[in-house]
Amino acid sequence: MATVASDPGARVARCLAWHRALHDPVREPRNRAPWLKPLQAWQAARLQRSFAGFLRDPRQRPAAEFFLSDLYGPHDFSRRDADLARVAPMMQRLLPRPLLATLADAIALGALTHAFDLRMAQALGAQRPPLAAIDVAAYAEAYRRVGLPRLRARQIALIDAVGHGLAAALRLPGVATLLRLSRGPARAAGVEALQGFLERGQAAFAALGDARPFLARIRRDETAVMQRLFAGDPAPFGPDWHALD
Fold this sequence. Notes:
- This protein is mainly α.
- The chain has twelve helices and no strands.
- It is globular and about 55 Å long.
- The relative contact order is 0.15.
């Protein structure tokens, strides 16, 4: 499911450049928007609630936590991506091409998510008085104001692609051994963040087993949320979301 380019190493480099540009407060001053951090915290709480069923299941919990902490959350991935930039030429020689392509998808997902966060923070600033709290209605209004439904669908497709790509690539023969053997060199090279990302992904999907039902449910649920938000449904996240207001 990963987006396999003819040169995945080059795509990693392009995605890293896009990611850095979006996070640069000089090139992108919306990074200093006062609504950005509250928005990201609100979205993190929303995702935590959406993943509650996964988190209660011991088998699915590691994969759910990996998604929340490493792929689709408000966390700062700049250290991981800086590690990627430093070792990208070496990775092209050592890592399987499907795993490189999936890493490119993961960076693209983070960049696209941040691009939406910047637009959402700007929209919230235009519609909310200073220091007002974010609630479901305000979030939904900003979501529709930002629009871009095809890119929202692309964001969900990237979540699915990264999940399937990691699940497949990290089960390739020799990958688990390669990750174990690379711990020392990764520490010596100062790229522990990237090493940790790959090891957490490998452990999460190993515990999960068949990732297809888990990923299908995420894609189905997030697509339904997107459609309800664009349709103006008063309860886009479900009937009992007042705790986030």
